[in-house]
Amino acid sequence: MRVLVVEDERNLADAIARGLRKRGMAVDVAYDGDSGHEMAFVTRYDVVVLDRDLPGMHGDQICAEIAASGALTRVLMLTASGTVADRVEGLQLGADDYLPKPFAFDELVARVQALGRRATPAAPPVLELADLVVDPARRTATRGGATVELTNKEFGVLCELLKARGAVVSSEELLERVWDANTDPFTTIVRVTVMTLRRKLGDPPLIETVVGAGYRTAEVPA
């Protein structure tokens, strides 16, 4: 899941980003409204965690433009003011959810995860291919009943490939969906991650390379 945090309180923004990354999400951060607005329309994010009162472009305007764009991006609006009137106004602007400060981090994570599920085409709660079973909510993967220990990035790549249901997913798409903006676009990290993922999943291979195009899940004989 790709998330953008737009929050001018740097310590809070960085803490949110660290916490979400620990949950396996790819997170970018903007500390003002202008840069947040630019990032939101350059990269396809699943969720934007958006402070309402921002320097530069106001969070209300960013929220309204995201909603008007028709993008699947979901907006979780944060604000220090948590009155009913404020919540109603935020939702009327196009926010998908609203969380007043201060908030419990576990609740923030749960809300981001719920919004992320709504930002992508519907997928089964448990992803399966042959004897591989992947549970994105619990972040578990088993093959033939045995647990497969994966890093966050390996798990993210595997989920993206399984959700594609045999369609080719390019390296660029995987880089955008699983890594954040700090990653060098010319890196070989996707190829290396797929290579280690294949090794961990074992035989018969479940991921195949489509030369010049990307990767897809393999057809496994019944």
TrEMBL record:
<dbReference type="Pfam" id="PF00072">
    <property type="entry name" value="Response_reg"/>
</dbReference>
<dbReference type="GO" id="GO:0032993">
    <property type="term" value="C:protein-DNA complex"/>
</dbReference>
<dbReference type="InterPro" id="IPR036388">
    <property type="entry name" value="WH-like_DNA-bd_sf"/>
</dbReference>
<feature type="modified residue" description="4-aspartylphosphate">
    <location>
        <position position="51"/>
    </location>
</feature>
<dbReference type="InterPro" id="IPR001867">
    <property type="entry name" value="OmpR/PhoB-type_DNA-bd"/>
</dbReference>
<dbReference type="InterPro" id="IPR001789">
    <property type="entry name" value="Sig_transdc_resp-reg_receiver"/>
</dbReference>
<feature type="DNA-binding region" description="OmpR/PhoB-type">
    <location>
        <begin position="124"/>
        <end position="219"/>
    </location>
</feature>
<keyword id="KW-0238">DNA-binding</keyword>
<protein>
    <submittedName>
        <fullName>DNA-binding response regulator</fullName>
    </submittedName>
</protein>
<keyword id="KW-0597">Phosphoprotein</keyword>
<dbReference type="GO" id="GO:0000976">
    <property type="term" value="F:transcription cis-regulatory region binding"/>
</dbReference>
<feature type="domain" description="Response regulatory">
    <location>
        <begin position="2"/>
        <end position="116"/>
    </location>
</feature>
<dbReference type="GO" id="GO:0005829">
    <property type="term" value="C:cytosol"/>
</dbReference>
<feature type="domain" description="OmpR/PhoB-type">
    <location>
        <begin position="124"/>
        <end position="219"/>
    </location>
</feature>
<dbReference type="GO" id="GO:0006355">
    <property type="term" value="P:regulation of DNA-templated transcription"/>
</dbReference>
<dbReference type="InterPro" id="IPR011006">
    <property type="entry name" value="CheY-like_superfamily"/>
</dbReference>
<dbReference type="GO" id="GO:0000156">
    <property type="term" value="F:phosphorelay response regulator activity"/>
</dbReference>
<dbReference type="InterPro" id="IPR039420">
    <property type="entry name" value="WalR-like"/>
</dbReference>
<dbReference type="Pfam" id="PF00486">
    <property type="entry name" value="Trans_reg_C"/>
</dbReference>
